[in-house]
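EI: anyone free to look at a 122-residue chain?
SC: sure, send it
EI:
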Amino acid sequence: MRFFEFTGTDETIDKYVILLKNIIGRAEMKKSPAKMNWAGLSNLALKNKIQLAADYETFKAIYDSSPAIQSLVKNFNADGIELDVPGAPDADPQSPQSDQSSQDAVDQTAASAAPQQLSQET
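SC: here you go
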């Protein structure tokens, strides 16, 4: 059995749900994604008097057994957790679709503006 299975699981999961909802609420107010590593989540849990270590294996066991937790989590992996924040942009914005680098884009913009600037000076 895992540590959380020996403790009052319902109460612990309820506290965990409240903690995650608070994090989501703060992120929603800022219109930003809520993504953190396991150490950060463990520290928040300890500050809120939740006696549960946040690591991938423990969280996965809780996630698999709790629909309440599943509804709050967008994604998690060995590095950390990303919560489902309504209205927040994706944490990893999409890169430009073209094969053009940012320097090439600047060069192209400068090249197209140069003739206009030169014609105004004469």
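EI: The first strand starts at residue 34 and ends at 37.
SC: 👍
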